[in-house]
Amino acid sequence: MIKELPSLVIPGATIEILKASCASCSMHQLCLPMGLDNNDMERLDQIIGRRRKVARGATLFRIGDAFQNLYAIRLGHFKTYQVNREGAEQITGFQMAGELLGMDAISADQHHCTAVALEDSEVCEIPFATLQQLLAEMPTLLRHFHRMMSQEITREQSVMLLLGNMQATQRFAAFLINLSSRYEARGYSPNTFQLRMSREEIGNYLGLTIESISRLLSKFKKEGLVRVSNREIELLDTRMLKAITAGTETCG
Amino acid sequence: MIKELPSLVIPGATIEILKASCASCSMHQLCLPMGLDNNDMERLDQIIGRRRKVARGATLFRIGDAFQNLYAIRLGHFKTYQVNREGAEQITGFQMAGELLGMDAISADQHHCTAVALEDSEVCEIPFATLQQLLAEMPTLLRHFHRMMSQEITREQSVMLLLGNMQATQRFAAFLINLSSRYEARGYSPNTFQLRMSREEIGNYLGLTIESISRLLSKFKKEGLVRVSNREIELLDTRMLKAITAGTETCG
DNA sequence: CGGTCAATTGACCACAGTCAAGCTTGGTGG
DNA sequence: CCACCAAGCTTGACTGTGGTCAATTGACCG
């Protein structure tokens, strides 16, 4: 299933067909093909439209775009955001390799958020109409697809808890712990990683200002919880950060 | 498909098998069977475990319960909430007739939130394992089920926008307008309705305190936007409320 | 009736927002 | 190599929105 086609360009994003398959992708135990046998994975591979590159800052889809495809992130990071009528953005999530983009578009056949690459990234385009046919024939795939949608619901509920109930310090600790565990699940260091998003984007996501994020970073640094250098961050006291997240920390 | 069986009781909730079917249910154009032909609707009807009553204040499922069923609300209102490690609740939604409960439980085979009836209510129990078999055979049902899950994702994203970006006044106006439009979609008056939840529950949902909700109600009353008497509310100036929601209102 | 619970209102306060100045960092060009 | 600039980040001083605490009113019910 190796595909070789000339690359093409659309406004703001470079598209290129890559030699790739689910079986050879390091994310296949997290992504849509999770748990499929070789035969089923091959079938899924065949319906994947193309693998394309999305340059840093380029838009994968925007609010109002007609819904055609889901996108599985092969490599890189994205943010998704909503825009209210005033034009204010609210970032609804940061997505990394192995995660699915576009599931909110199924309900009304058009995208309800905009997805932008935070760094040079690669996605697999999954034509939803074709996927749906396949779902009817492959119970394992159907099951896992439902799990992924459900996981998105659960994730958003956690953010609601964060935004509705937590203090600034708690929100930020929760954010760091969340990133940490997701990197760990991908085989990366849970303690040292790059923040792919700006302070402004973090603040927007957490319902805080950029100044608050900056102050919180300084505070955590002073308390010996983290080491920070620009976007490089090291978690020095995960235990404490988790305690802050849970609201059970005792000392100040 | 009329079922007639003796009623039984489980702790906290009365269960009773009712004479009912999707075809005879007033919600079937909003609920899971939307768009199904008579034959398919009949098949869906057959897998529905039972129709049961849930008394006001009774719990339908709680966090950590093993996932067996989805629940379609036939009648009444529910709230769902998450609990953090400190024991603080965050209400993640208010659900009404025609809406589906339990979709967040698919991902990990256990419920991630607790669902409690806000008034005496009735639900249809949908065994998920059986539903999934049916989904593979009925493309229309599959399609609509995905729409409903996607709609839940979209709804939660709107709440994230509300909690992350909006001021107290804006949040509360958005809340009222949201209820209004959902009652309208069900054929009820969009202007006059009962608030099924307490001020405290509204505040919790909107990330505000009960005092703030009370003050906002008084403010809206004074400005002639609403008329309130206990839980009975009448929206007198929907146009203005929508403007406040959108953040585009000009006068104070 | 009094008792209970929910809602309202007022006084005060604190957390995080706003505004503003200053500091890094990285890129460009002389 | 350094000057210059822009963008992003940090820090401080001040402010305001909404939280906290407390007292009062109102609704419902045995």
UniProtKB/TrEMBL annotation, chains A, B:
<keyword id="KW-0238">DNA-binding</keyword>
<dbReference type="InterPro" id="IPR012318">
    <property type="entry name" value="HTH_CRP"/>
</dbReference>
<dbReference type="InterPro" id="IPR050397">
    <property type="entry name" value="Env_Response_Regulators"/>
</dbReference>
<dbReference type="InterPro" id="IPR036390">
    <property type="entry name" value="WH_DNA-bd_sf"/>
</dbReference>
<dbReference type="GO" id="GO:0003677">
    <property type="term" value="F:DNA binding"/>
</dbReference>
<dbReference type="InterPro" id="IPR000595">
    <property type="entry name" value="cNMP-bd_dom"/>
</dbReference>
<dbReference type="InterPro" id="IPR036388">
    <property type="entry name" value="WH-like_DNA-bd_sf"/>
</dbReference>
<dbReference type="InterPro" id="IPR018335">
    <property type="entry name" value="Tscrpt_reg_HTH_Crp-type_CS"/>
</dbReference>
<dbReference type="GO" id="GO:0005829">
    <property type="term" value="C:cytosol"/>
</dbReference>
<keyword id="KW-0804">Transcription</keyword>
<keyword id="KW-0805">Transcription regulation</keyword>
<feature type="domain" description="HTH crp-type">
    <location>
        <begin position="166"/>
        <end position="239"/>
    </location>
</feature>
<dbReference type="GO" id="GO:0003700">
    <property type="term" value="F:DNA-binding transcription factor activity"/>
</dbReference>
<dbReference type="Pfam" id="PF00027">
    <property type="entry name" value="cNMP_binding"/>
</dbReference>
<feature type="domain" description="Cyclic nucleotide-binding">
    <location>
        <begin position="32"/>
        <end position="152"/>
    </location>
</feature>
<protein>
    <submittedName>
        <fullName>Fumarate/nitrate reduction transcriptional regulator Fnr</fullName>
    </submittedName>
</protein>
<dbReference type="Pfam" id="PF13545">
    <property type="entry name" value="HTH_Crp_2"/>
</dbReference>
<dbReference type="InterPro" id="IPR014710">
    <property type="entry name" value="RmlC-like_jellyroll"/>
</dbReference>
<dbReference type="InterPro" id="IPR018490">
    <property type="entry name" value="cNMP-bd_dom_sf"/>
</dbReference>
